[in-house]
Amino acid sequence: xxxxxxxxxxxxxxxxxxxxxxxxxxxxxxxxxxxxxxxxxxxxxxxxxxxxxxxxxxxxxxxxxxxxxxxxxxxxxxxxxxxxxxxxxxxxxxxxxxxxxxxxxxxxxxxxxxxxxxxxxxxxxxxxxxxxxxxxxxxxxxxxxxxxxxxxxxxxxxxxxxxxxxxxxxxxxxxxxxxxxxxxxxxxxxxxxxxxxxxxxxxxxxxxxxxxxxxxxxxxxxxxxxxxxxxxxxxxxxxxxxxxxxxxxxxxxxxxxxxxxxxxxxxxxxxxxxxxxxxxxxxxxxxxxxxxxxxxxxxxxxxxxxxxxxxxxxxxxxxxxxxxxxxxxxxxxxxxxxxxxxxxxxxxxxxxxxxxxxxxxxxxxxxxxxxxxxxxxxxxxxxxxxxxxxxxxxxxxxxxxxxxxxxxxxxxxxxxxxxxxxxxxxxxxxxxxxxxxxxxxxxxxxxxxxxxxxxxxxxxxxxxxxxxxxxxxxxxxxxxxxxxxxxxxxxxxxxxxxxxxxxxxxxxxxxxxxxxxxxxxxxxxxxxxxxxxxxxxxxxxxxxxxxxxxxxxxxxxxxxxxxxxxxxxxxxxxxxxxxxxxxxxxxxxxxxxxxxxxxxxxxxxxxxxxxxxxxxx
Amino acid sequence: xxxxxxxxxxxxxxxxxxxxxxxxxxxxxxxxxxxxxxxxxxxxxxxxxxxxxxxxxxxxxxxxxxxxxxxxxxxxxxxxxxxxxxxxxxxxxxxxxxxxxxxxxxxxxxxxxxxxxxxxxxxxxxxxxxxxxxxxxxxxxxxxxxxxxxxxxxxxxxxxxxxxxxxxxxxxxxxxxxxxxxxxxxxxxxxxxxxxxxxxxxxxxxxxxxxxxxxxxxxxxxxxxxxxxxxxxxxxxxxxxxxxxxxxxxxxxxxxxxxxxxxxxxxxxxxxxxxxxxxxxxxxxxxxxxxxxxxxxxxxxxxxxxxxxxx
Lengths: 617, 311
Fold this sequence. Notes:
The structure holds two protein chains of two kinds. Chain A is an alpha+beta fold. Chain A has four domains: about 5-25 and about 445-610, Multidrug efflux transporter AcrB transmembrane fold, CATH 1.20.1640.10; about 30-105, 2-Layer Sandwich (Alpha-Beta Plaits), CATH 3.30.70; about 140-215, Alpha-Beta Plaits (2-Layer Sandwich); about 275-440, 2-Layer Sandwich (Gyrase A, domain 2). Chain A has helices spanning about 5-25, 45-60, 80-95, 110-115, 125, 140-160, 180-195, 215-240, 265-275, 290-295, 350-360, 415-430, 445-500, 505-535, 540-570, 575-610, and strands spanning about 30-40, 65-70, 70-75, 100-105, 120, 130-135, 165-170, 175-180, 200-205, 210-215, 250, 255-260, 275-285, 305, 315-325, 325-335, 340-345, 365-380, 385-400, 410, 435-445, 505. The longest helix of chain A has about 55 residues, at about 445-500. By secondary structure, chain B is an alpha+beta fold. In chain B, about 65% of the residues lie in helices and about 10% in strands. Residues about 305-310 of chain B have low confidence and may be disordered. Chains A and B meet through helix 9, strand 18, strand 21, helix 13 and helix 14 of A and helix 4, strand 5, helix 5, helix 7 and helix 8 of B.
């Protein structure tokens, strides 16, 4: 007799029940929705909702419902068409202090969401959105660090009154040159005392006495780590300003950042905002020397030649008063006196102190704002990728210092309110520590995402139906049992994916399809064994017993090897491929349960309790 | 229902020379093609920009090309994708334009052609990312093979592990070779499919090896060739039925899964067919040639314990 102990039958029943429950949210529709969030000092309240309602009514768009949740206004629509159409009227009604993001919201009954059940998390290739991989230029971060040190060493030596001949960068080191060994040794001691994270070497080259300082390995590691962290923070701020629901900003490897924006639809705008690294520098203008001379090549030592936006040459002092990373906040508005667009800037403590000192000493003199934009492009030169970094430096405003100022001040001279707004946004997001470059972009439009879901779903269903028909015809009653297990397996995979909130991608759906085909393998192995046993003259009950027993270790071996392939795929793959590996691995695990334990429970129920003359296998 | 008689007595091993010639021929052709023609690598590996645009009605490719070259994309490759309403544009890197901007320009050109054109997909992969991916992909395949070699070596015997890996390499080379021969685009999903083929093909081989091991221990008389032959015959029905169900779902994926998943499904279909063949002919012949015998398998006694744990 083939009987399962009660606990095993209960186990199967409980797994089936839980699987069904957690897979359930996926059959509910997801409403195309809009998530409205407030920026800066704006708030979301019932008044906001009323304004949105009015705007929708005016444009003749019907919403399915609205709710305020966690300080965000959620507007549901019946169709994604309505959702897209509602974008502009809502934006117009709320103004620029609010951002709208397209998203999907499940329409679940309360008891189900109370259980923590959620639908599967769809990847960008299914829901639409923008994926960007950003490379942080670490070489440049190190270079900037060296630049900082060389300027600090200069200040230090001047402060200590140690005379040097020259300070310069040479490769990955800062070299300070002295007239004699005594001076050099003194300086070397002072520098070593002050900058413990530097490696300091004393070198004698003929008449030259040099101190060579370079970054220690731990220091350069810190510089890189900091550059990455600062970039992630900056990108996060910029993405928040874009207003995207559920954005993902994550470190990948030791110099890359992944940005995923589900539902985002304008890749041009996103890339512009993410890719640009802009910063400001405040410098004093050099009024003592002639600009004409400088244009003709005689630039005075302490100064540099810049150009204004209209091409006009300007001579500015090399010394920077304040740089972008000392800016803590920036907002756009209008200058009270002239009514021109302006950017209001707040500085941090150090920046404010320096600004106050400089403006105090230089009232009445002109000060310039230099706008610096870094762009990195990769070009193919003779089949080899080569990075070209271009730096655009423009003087965007030059104005007399009317009165000393410190922490808060304003910059005018911008072309339009839009420009003021963009500049404020870039400044607020902070200066980036190192230039970044977009090295990969994958944008999926919403229509393709939906197509992918539809086609994926259809191929799963058709594949499932084909396999089920085949199994039923080939193995009769046993085939039907295997089909039951197959359906159960599918439900379990969906339930696990929903429970783990693992990302479902198009290759992930392909993995499910493949699982459907391979999951019956265990049953095929078992059923073929049972047939063999019957042919060898065993009784039906003994054949069932022996069939399951003998096929077991084969099934384990066969599945473990596929699992190894899935694990390798998971650890190597990114995004979509990981999705394939996850569904394949989950499918293998659940199929072992359903195909062995599940089918046995049903077979035992059908045949186990009675005398049978023959098996329908 | 039965597709095959249960007591088939096909002399698989007797035809192993013929099978070997066929396999070697296929491998030579595959390798030859890979070396001379190379693979039609997708932008995942080469780097580049690809834009898919959906039009409300069928669109003629010449007009798309004309519009693109007017906008300075003279060397863009244009093709229909799936339907005649979808157009796939591949863009070469341009010297004076930031790579991330290329796609935006191309799409706005398409909007100039038809204002309601719909941006379905943009893929831009920088050259350095593509290079890394190629390396990682190769490494992944290597790791999968090593992992499998170790597992099979532990569970069976080293000759079985070597035999399984020979069968795998056979399958992988022929699958990739077909992609090279017909210049079907080889992209990231296809690579994933090839890795899955490794898993699948092994699955088949393991089942056959399992039976060979069992029979070596059980059947007292008969030489290795006979035992391997009867093992192959006993598992034949299972091998073919599983390949059949897997092929059914893969065909469903190929025909209904959409254009993006085509290459993926194709690689798996080829892999499953080749894998089925190799698990019958290549895997068996390999261990036979390495001289596996009854004595090699006797000391391992642990196998039946695993079976006792079954429900």
